[in-house]
Amino acid sequence: MRRFSRVILISVAVISVALLVSCGDTDAPAATASIEITARAGPTCPVETDPPSPECAARPVDTAMIVITDPQGNEVGRGTTGSDGRVIIDVPPGELIVVPQPVEGLLGTAATLAVTVADGQTLHVTADYDTGIR
């Protein structure tokens, strides 16, 4: 009798797990694309030279919040850049808007970008912030 009870308990557990896995949110669009954003700030030197001096290159922007919306303004993703100024955000494919948020210590915000990302694609974009150095 004990062995029979143990088999029933194991069977119930397996069925419960299978039901939980199969009852996922079927209304949510699958994130099958991504956008890699590189946030950088410049200028970093008061005088630009031609050719540009490597020590005056734009610097990565750490902790920049990037929001991704659809054309109607519905948020579809968000992320924060790391110390290298980069973040990868999974998104549904289609027409999207990349909306960089203000960063303390930098002037204004980087420009909003309208992009189109294809299914399975990782799109690379740059968000340029202004340091205010002139």
Commentary on this structure:
- The protein has 134 residues and is of the alpha+beta class.
- Helices cover 16% and strands 37% of the residues.
- It has 1 helix and 8 strands.
- The protein has one helix at residues 2-22, and strands at residues 33-42, 59-60, 65-69, 75-80, 86-91, 94-100, 113-117, 122-130.
- The strands form 2 sheets. Strands 1, 2, 5 and 8 form a 4-stranded mixed beta sheet that branches.
- The model is unreliable at 17-22 (pLDDT under 50).
Briefly say what this structure is.
The chain is α+β, with helices and mostly antiparallel strands and 134 residues long. It has 1 helix and 8 strands; from the N terminus they run H-E-E-E-E-E-E-E-E. The strands form 2 sheets. Strands 1, 2, 5 and 8 form a 4-stranded mixed beta sheet that branches.
What is the strand and helix layout of this fold?
Blueprint (H helix, E strand, L loop, with lengths): L1 H21 L10 E10 L16 E2 L4 E5 L5 E6 L5 E6 L2 E7 L12 E5 L4 E9 L4
Parallel strand pairs: 1-8
Antiparallel strand pairs: 1-2, 1-5, 3-4, 3-6, 6-7
